[in-house]
Structures are given as C-alpha cells and as structure tokens.
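Cross-posting from the modeling subforum.

Setting up a comparison between two proteins and wanted a second pair of eyes on the formatting. Protein 1 (sequence, then structure tokens):
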Amino acid sequence: MLLAIDVGNTNTVLGLYKLASSTGEAELVANWRITTPSRQTTDEFGVMLRSLFGLRGLDMTAVDGIAIASVVPPLDSMLRQVCEVYFKIKPLMIEPGVKTGLPVLTDNPSDAGADRIVDCVAAFEKFGGPCIVVDMGTATTFDVVSKKGEFLGGAIAPGLGISAEALFARAARLSRVDIKKPTKVIGTGTVDNMQIGLYYGYIGLVDGILERMIAELGPETKTVATGGLAKLIASGSKYIGAVDEMLTLTGLRIIYERNLERQKKRGA
C-alpha cells in the first residue's frame, strides 16, 4: 500500500492507497487531515500516525511505499526519519530530479512548489489540457497546464483564511466570524456584513483571475478546485467546473507509480 502525504503550511493531508493491480484501479482506503506539525519530534509524529492507523483498524506494516509533497522545508528531515524509523521505507520526496511526466516551462523550474506540480499532474491525467488548478489553502494558487501537459505557470494570492485574519487583526471593533456562504448579499448586521464581504469578495478574486486566464488559454479550458475551502468557494463561482479535494493525493499516487521502478532500484 502507498501512503501519500501532502504537507501544507497550515494542514497536512494523508491518504492510504491500495495500488492498482492488472485487473483494477487504485483505491483510496483512508484519508486524514491534520494540523501541520511545527515542533513535533520524529517519535511524536510517529505515535500520532500509529493512532490514526489504529483508529481505522489499519496496519502500518502494510505500507510499502510513501510519497511526500512538502512546502515546509524545515519538516522534511523529520518526515524522512519518521518514514525510515516507523515504516522502514525511504520516501519519495517530490523535488527537482523526480520523474513527474510534467515539463515545467517557468523561468526557474526549481522554484515551483511540490504541491503545485503534483496538482497539475493529477489534473492533466483526469481532465486533460488546457487546464487550471485552483488550490485553496493558506495561499490560493492558480496553476496552468497546457494542452500538451506542460506546466506554464500561474498566480498566487492570499488565502481566504489569511484575508479574514488580516481583517480581524487590523479592525479593532471586528471580531472573528465563521466563514460561510451568506443567505443574502445586503447585510443588516456586522456579522453578516463581514461574511458577505469575505465570501463574495473572495469569489470575485478567484473568478476575476480565472476569467482572464481562460481568455488567454481558450474557451476549451477546464478548471478544477482543490483544498480545504474548495467546495465553499466553488459553489458560488462562475468558472470553477469541478471540485476534487483529493487531487493532490491523486497526483502523489500517479508520480509514485511513475517512479516505482526507480524506487525499487534505490532499495526503498
């Protein structure tokens, strides 16, 4: 089985896959979303993984492959140690030099975040190109894949959570509110005023960028959203055509499978 780990700035998503055989497709057996560890030791993170597996009645010894996409470099060494100590496996870290099948045509390909590359691999595999992936996490990234399956670049904007925190921090009389879809557009109280501004303001940001990107790429462009807030924003967007909350995990699985022979040669 494959353990796919997507380490973001705020949350970490894990997925356990039963890989495809000659007679079937890969199956997502279990998935978890946790707060990204900031000060946990190797043992603390390992114990947490044991708890997660145990609560689902799963056996950690069944894992024979691990793929990791991390945008938090200080955690990379700890994650490697967890894999080697608790799973006896050398993980496949998505980094320059790893075979992804996705040519990166940006000014500095090594600058592209691992999660963005992984998202694009999965999106092109599932939807074809041209395609735009909107990943709504701590930051919201817009990643563009060409018709030929090349990563062309994109855009990065502050995430909805960051925008909300900035509003609360800088406006003394405004308190934190639940971010959700408002029932009306003209608010009559402070709370619904803030919810309307956050929700529809962010949809305006997303749709404004997508409208311009689609105009440049062509009307046949597909769009897919992923990340913790994908469903919330996509429900009000004019341009998001699909939501796939497991897109990054799917991309990790695809890349792992493409590197399986290489991993075997490395003794993983």
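Protein 2 (same layout):
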Amino acid sequence: MLQTRPTSTAAQMHPDERAARVQLAACYRIFALLGWTEMIYNHITLRLPGSVSGEEKHFLINPFGLHYNEVTASNLVKVNLAGDILDGSPHPINPAGYVLHSTIHGGIDGAHCVMHTHTTAGVAVASLASGLSQSNFYSAQLHDMVATHDFEGITIHAEEGPRVLASIGNKQAVILRNHGLLSWGQTLPQAFAVLWTLQRACEIQLATQSMGAPLPVPEAIAAKCTRDALQFDPKHGAGQDVFNALVRQIERIDASYKN
C-alpha cells in the first residue's frame, strides 16, 4: 500500500481528469473560506470518471502537509483503492484519510465524492449522547437521511471498513460519533449540499442548546420538509447552483486553485 507509480504527464492528462482536479481544488478553497479546516488534516476526495480510470476506482485526495488554501489542481494526488499513488506525486497522503475515504469510494457505488470535517459544531453534536436533534429548519431537511457510526479511534485500521459501510447504509449524511461529520454524493456539489445542511443543523443546535432545551419538530413535519427540500435532488441541480456561486467567490479572491 502507498506505493508511487508514475502515469501520464499533465500534457497527456485526460480533459475529464483536469476538470475533476479543478473542481476539487476549488472545493478545498471553499472549505477554507467557510472555516471548515483543521490545520493540514481532514479530506475531500473525488472519484475520477470512468472515462479516465476505466473499470478501476481511482480518486483524488489532498497532499498531506498542505493547508486547504495551498491545494491546487496539479498538486492533488491520484490514488487507487489500494493506496498506490498513480501520478508520480512527490507528496504523501494521510493514511487516516485514505482508509476512511477509500472504504466509502470502494464500498458505495454512488459515492463519487466524500467529505469529512472536524468543525466545532460538528464534533460537539457528534459527542452528544443524544446526537443530532430534530429541532431546526436544517435538521428537519435531513429526516431519515443521517447515519451514525460509533467511534473506534483514529481511522487507520482497514478492519473498521465493513463496520463503517454497515453503519452508513444508503444515507448520505453521516455523524461519526465523538469525531465529526461526513457526507458523500453522486457529485461533488451534491455531497457539499448535504454536508452544508448537516453543518448548519449542528451549528443551530449548538446555539439553541446553549440557551435551553430545543423545541422538537414533529416527525411528520420533518418528513414533509425533507420531501420538499430540492437541494439534494439531481433533477434540481443537486447543489450545483450553490457550489457555482461559491466558486465565483473563490475566483474573485484567488484563482490559483486552477494551477
């Protein structure tokens, strides 16, 4: 595992890989803009389309040691599910990120993008015995969409993988107990829309509980909210419009992510 194998040069890169790299690099800069960073840790990974990798599942991950503000299209690292570095990158990858993300990319067919954060609000709610409260506008939009996985320590042990997948099932919003938040999506914007909604739900819960007991949203109302929410649905863009708006902000601040 974690061997380096050179493949194509940048000049030979498939246009679909180039597009994926630019989109993912933009997302890292968006996370930095939103304050969803944890020094050099945590990860957003994106599976490359079949036009690039064929039947194999290759994905892009951030180079370990760089802040999200330093991630660019060219320094993202391409790996396979075995953890081999495929693009000759001089950068290492974080084993904790590789193990968790490769498990989900490899085990869930629709998981083309996986995002994981350690935000204060996310870890705080993940550390509550009661977990996420169905008590605000955002948690109500995640009715029956949130999975939980019990804490087993730092995610560097492959044997935890089957239990992670069993915990997640088909739910795209995941609370890793005592640890943080995770989302996966058929596209990067969809994964972002799910994570943003989960993050907002946690932030508002944290603020509410600092003042007193939350007012619960009835089950039937929450179910209706989730049915009426369109931001996760591919038929309605699945978060693409929101993601595009944030990319435009990044463009105005620093377009070097495309390098």
